[in-house]
Amino acid sequence: MMLSCIAVLSVVTVTYATESADSIGQISRLSRHEKFFLMHVAENNNAEVLASALAASKASDPEVKQYAALMVENQAGKAEELRQLAARNMVELPTVPSKLQQQILARLGKLDGAKFDGEYCRQIAVLAHKDSIALFKQAVKRAKNADVQAFAVKNQAEAEAYLSQGEALKVIIDKKTKPFRKMLNIAPAANIQK
Asked: Among residues 192, 187, 177, which one has the least CA distance to residue 63?
């Protein structure tokens, strides 16, 4: 009886050790850069979704609301694809934006109407997409994992399209608010020195 228990125990131990080795192999399949890439994309998605959800109640321009709704819809699909890619590669993704993105969201949360529209266009429609494009380009060059590279290529093209739309939207919003800024003697956001 004792020998059969030891035999079963050793089979269980060997099976567990093999499964653990397989899991370790999966964890180490991605480079540090690839893991960072997936995590940063998740933070960006979280920030875009939260900022775009704010636009539903804070934006005054219907075009900003329409763009924001498109971002929420787009990011949901990308987030699911990202979750699956991360799960296959044993990468735990952040569920919140980065600290800097949280500060931007806090500032957006304090704005309404035309001020919100302008800042949303600048921070999310333009700057966030430029950041994402740079991230995707870097992953396309450096990623060795075929799935990570394919994800980066696909999403770089999408981010470039959304950046073009965002830049066009920002021009429209800036034109609408320019007379207001002149009246109050406020410099455009792009000309403010920090």
From this structure: 177
Q: 108-122, 156-170, 174-188 — which is least confidently predicted?
A: 174-188
Q: Is 100's pLDDT higher than 80? A: yes
How confident is the model over 144-159, as a mean pLDDT? 96
pTM over 0.90: no
Any idea which residue has 């030891």 for tokens? 6
Between the alpha carbon of residue 190 and those of residues 117, 121, 122, 134, 193, the distances in Å are: 15, 12, 9, 20, 8
Spatial CA neighbour of 168 closest among 121, 124, 112, 117: 121
Quote the CA–CA distance of 165 and 1 in Å, as a whole number: 73
Mean pLDDT of the chain: 83
| Distances from the Cα of 79 to the Cα of 14, 18, 94, 136, 146, angstroms | 37, 31, 11, 15, 19
Question: Residue 103: exposed, middle, or buried by beta-carbon count in 10 A (0-12, 13-18, 19+)?
Answer: exposed
How many whole angstroms separate alpha carbon 147 and alpha carbon 151? 6
Phi/psi zone of residue 185: left (φ > 0), alpha (ψ -120 to 50 degrees), beta? Answer: left
- Rounded distance between C-alpha atoms, residue 180 and residue 164, angstroms: 25
